[in-house]
Amino acid sequence: MANPQRAGRLAQEVQRDVTDLLLKRINDPRVQDVTVTSVELSGDLQIATIYYSILSDLASAGQKAQSGLEAASGLIRKELGARLTVYKTPELRFVRDQSVQYGNHIEDLIRKLNSEN
């Protein structure tokens, strides 16, 4: 098991580098509006779960972004390997962050309650 502080620093570095790669290196239009919200590393630093959000609420846009990220994951992992100072570059898993949509849903419910009163 890795040091939690080291894992946190590495997760921040992965987040910064993946964001940079999506902006500057990946030219796929499917990942154009993707924002990396957070990164979690497994205890052995072998798997990086990258949480992302997109501007659109449409399910089709989410599926396109997911397929675009999966298609670019090899290039992203290769570039991370050159940038990071770790023995083995973590495997990348992309997961859509639902917290923004959940927050919007709660806000709509509160607005609805306030308008009824």
Share of β-strand residues: 15-25%
Under CATH at level 1, the class stands as Alpha Beta
Report the mean per-residue pLDDT as an integer.
Answer: 88
Spell out the CATH superfamily.
K homology (KH) domain
**What's the total count of β strands?**
3
Strand order of the largest sheet: 1-2-3
What's the assembly state of these chains? Answer: single chain
* Number of helices in the DSSP assignment: 3
**CATH topology group:** GMP Synthetase, Chain A, domain 3
Q: Care to describe what's here?
A:
- With 117 residues, the protein is of the alpha+beta class.
- It has a single domain (4-116), classed as K homology (KH) domain (GMP Synthetase, Chain A, domain 3, 2-Layer Sandwich), CATH 3.30.300.
- It contains three helices and three strands; from the N terminus they run αββαβα.
- It has helices at 4-24, 59-83, 99-116; strands at residues 34-41, 47-54, 91-96.
- Strands 1-2-3 form a three-stranded mixed β-sheet, covered by helices on one side.
- Helix 1 (4-24) crosses helix 2 (59-83).
- The longest helix is centred in the middle third of the chain and has 25 residues, at 59-83.
- The mean pLDDT is 88.
